[in-house]
Amino acid sequence: MKKLIIIRHAKATHETGYEDFERPLTQRGLHDAAVVAGRLKETEHVPQMLVSSPALRTISTAHIFSQHLDLSAAGEIKAIYEADVDDLYEVVTQLPDEVDCIGLVGHNPALGQLLYYFSGAAHDVPTCAVAVIEFDTNIWEAVTANSGQLVYYDYPKNI
User: How many helices (H) does the chain have, and how many strands (E)?
Assistant: First the structure.
């Protein structure tokens, strides 16, 4: 069985003076990422590895999750930045088969579309939302539309 953990980056600044790629997390984003990662650690859905867009806000979010989940630093995949759902599907189907549970840290709207594509679950994916999708397969290349089941969903509510 494969598990894909979709993680949207935490709240980033919208202040002027930053290129989109270089937008840092806000204090709220730093806090939310730590809390949501801590809640994920309490479940049976802890990833074995993370992959992330190379944008500053996603790498920063991935770093916080890595620290709280005792993981190695996230691998950066350029195709996740400015991806559409087809790009993300391509990334997922090329993930290493020897790893059963992988967290993908990225951006909306593509993450929300990917969640719906794989599971049929239409959820809002606010900043720092986490969605775990299980697939009844042993190879990433076999995941297809509606082949997954949403088994966990969380976001920074009431923090």
Answer: 4, 6
